[in-house]
């Protein structure tokens, strides 16, 4: 076995762990933002919830598409970047609306 193969599999495992942690932490943040929105019914918190959800989904989705659905990695990264961009735009908007 090539020493490069071992390093690549370790990086793939580390990436899977980090992506899973991003999903968990992002999900928790999104959940608490949603709870705050339900409690207050403030439109800004609703947008904030949506924004965090999109960012979390974007960070998680690229690796999942590549691993599970055999989508080309660059296509997955493009989709990830678009979702993160959309999420950040919604978060920025949530800070603007009253």
CA-CA gap between termini = 59 Å
Note the main sheet.
none
Category by helix and strand content: mainly alpha
Determine the oligomeric state from the structure.
single chain
Give the strand content. Answer: under 5%
In short:
It contains 3 helices and no strands.
Question: What does the secondary structure layout of this molecule look like, with pairings?
Answer:
Blueprint: H1 3-40, H2 43-69, H3 73-96
Helix pairs in contact: 1-2, 2-3
Q: Can you tag this structure with a few keywords?
A:
mainly alpha; single chain; elongated; 98 residues; 3 helices
Describe this protein's structure.
21% of the residues are buried. The mean pLDDT is 89. The chain is elongated. Helix 1 (3-40) packs antiparallel against helix 2. The N and C termini lie far apart (59 Å). The chain contains three helices and no strands. It is mostly helical. The longest helix has 38 residues, at 3-40. Helices cover 91% and strands 0% of the residues.
């Amino acid at each position: 076995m090539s020493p490069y193969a071992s390093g690549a599999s370790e990086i793939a495992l580390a990436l899977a762990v980090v992506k899973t942690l991003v999903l968990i932490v992002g999900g928790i943040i999104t959940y608490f933002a949603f709870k705050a929105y339900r409690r207050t019914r403030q439109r800004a918190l609703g947008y904030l919830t949506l924004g965090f959800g999109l960012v979390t989904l974007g960070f998680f989705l690229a690796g999942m598409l590549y691993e599970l659905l055999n989508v080309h990695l660059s296509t997955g990264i493009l989709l990830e970047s678009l979702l993160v961009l959309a999420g950040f735009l919604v978060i920025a908007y949530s800070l603007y609306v009253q």
